[in-house]
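Structure first, sequence second, as always.
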């Protein structure tokens, strides 16, 4: 009888990118993954195909940030957390150029260097709150007494 070992594949299990956000907000992007039998080489975040963040746990400098127009990673955030199972980062100072396609790419280590990724689209807008005031009570007082209380 032969023992059969099933190799578990590298897979992205979830990506979270908010669809519509207010320009004044700080947003969290996250992805979770199952490394299977692979060791994590890196997690990279891209906006519109341009890399802006890299987590490489086996490198001396495990976190790297790259300049991309419209993307500002909140560094030293308590929410920013990456490990063998998930990676979560925050973006702040949003503007209209922050809108776009965000991709989380997971890379396994040697010898295979397997890759997987997930994509989410985010639109940055200015959400306006309109306050509607009623003047009914002042109007009723004027009609009843003929005196303007406004």
């Amino acid at each position: 009888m032969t023992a059969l070992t099933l190799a578990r594949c590298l897979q992205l299990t979830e990506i979270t990118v908010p669809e519509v956000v207010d320009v004044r907000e700080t947003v969290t992007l996250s992805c979770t993954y199952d490394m299977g039998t692979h060791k994590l080489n890196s997690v990279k975040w891209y906006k519109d195909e341009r890399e802006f963040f890299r987590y490489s746990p086996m490198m001396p400098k495990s976190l790297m940030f790259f300049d991309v127009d419209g993307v500002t990673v909140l560094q030293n955030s308590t929410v920013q957390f990456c490990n063998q199972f998930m990676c979560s980062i925050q973006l702040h100072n949003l503007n209209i150029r922050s809108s776009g396609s965000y991709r989380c790419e997971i890379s396994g280590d040697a010898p295979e260097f397997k890759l997987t990724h997930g994509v989410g689209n985010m639109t940055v807008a200015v959400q306006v709150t309109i306050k509607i005031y009623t003047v009914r009570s002042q109007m009723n007082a004027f009609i009843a007494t003929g005196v303007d209380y406004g």
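Margin note: The longest strand covers residues 115-125.
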